[in-house]
Design brief:
This protein is of the alpha+beta class and 393 residues long. It is built from five helices and 20 strands. The protein has five domains: 33 residues; 92 residues, conserved putative lor/sdh protein from methanococcus maripaludis s2 fold; 98 residues, Efflux pump adaptor protein, beta barrel domain (Elongation Factor Tu (Ef-tu), domain 3, Beta Barrel); 57 residues, RNA polymerase II/Efflux pump adaptor protein, barrel-sandwich hybrid domain (OB fold (Dihydrolipoamide Acetyltransferase, E2P)); 75 residues, Helix Hairpins, CATH 1.10.287. A six-stranded antiparallel β-barrel has the order 2-9-12-11-10-13. Strands 6-5-3-8 form a four-stranded antiparallel β-sheet. It has a three-stranded mixed β-sheet with strand order 19-1-20, with no helix packed on it. The N and C termini lie far apart (97 Å). GO terms for molecular function: efflux transmembrane transporter activity.
Amino acid sequence: MKVPKIWIAGLSAAVLAVSGTYLWREGIPFGVMKPAAKSAPARPVPVTAGVVKDQDFAISRVGLGTVQAYNTVTVKVRVDGEVQKIAFREGQDVQVGDLIAQIDPRPYQAQLHQAEADKARDEALLANARLDLERYSKLVVKEFATRQSVDTQEALVAQYQAAIAHDQAVIDNARVQLGYTTIVSPLAGRTGIRLIDQGNIVHASDPGGLVVITQVAPIGVIFALPQKYLPEIVDAMQGGALVVSAYDQDDRIKLAEGRLELIDNQIDQGTGSIRLKAIFQNLDGRLWPGQFVSARLLLGVRRGPVVPESALQSGPNGSYAFVVRQDSTVEPHLVRIAASSNGEALIESGLAAHETIVVDGHYKLRPGARVVTAPAPVAPARERAASTAQGRE
């Protein structure tokens, strides 16, 4: 008996439908089934490696500081008058006693001459009174003059003596006022922008001045550090003066090196910080009043394992680093950081000198992962010399 083709087609469709439903329920993709391939071994992870160095490490504390002039003075006039001469250039270096400005001295010269004339007059009167006293004293002996006339003449002599002393004081004051008309620099420093032009009338009561002079060699830097560093700073000062280095605001270029001058006598309760002052000779003028700098206070030098900061990672249990073992697999080591500076960290514990560690490429690593290492690139000498970083515990 011959089966119709339409029945064969219907039966085939039913078999396919039942097979597809079974495969869908079992979670097997419907399609051409291929035998499962064997899993390939994990490929080594390419990383950059470095060696733990055993070297000296500078322990320093860094704070933001402001440069302050060692001395600053606003030159003001002390007498009234016309400014006849401005004797300095803006930005000029001046020494103690250099002429800054000249006030019209003629009114004060006249006052001095008047006081001197008054003294000369009183000296002449005193000389005459003394002669009269001498005459009266001789006459009273012969009873040609009364004792009262002698006493009166003695009082007149004393009066003229007091007048001469007063005249001398007036002369001294006039000379001082005349001296104030010549304005000189009270310190060695650099002049700023001129505040008064020649020809102006100035007064001793004016709130402004002629110019501001700042002493820039030597110069000071005021910077702040957290109060937790105070005990170790005090301990380090017992061994002598501490070195302070000033860097630019970007912490890249070293500007000057000086010494710690003092620790402020109180802690700022608002910020919990202590202020310190360092003195720099600044002979090359690289520090400028009002400039923001990064001040690095050197507390000492320790020797131990030193690694790049890029080799250290943060985890739930603290900092760690991947150590490359002999079989090219990695193992994480928990580390304790003693200090960090200039892109490097001094390790208190967790790593030993000459161990190989992963410096870059951590994001693909897991404990026991196999790696293929490449040496860390060496920074150019200029870049190493210019780079600095903020020290911290």
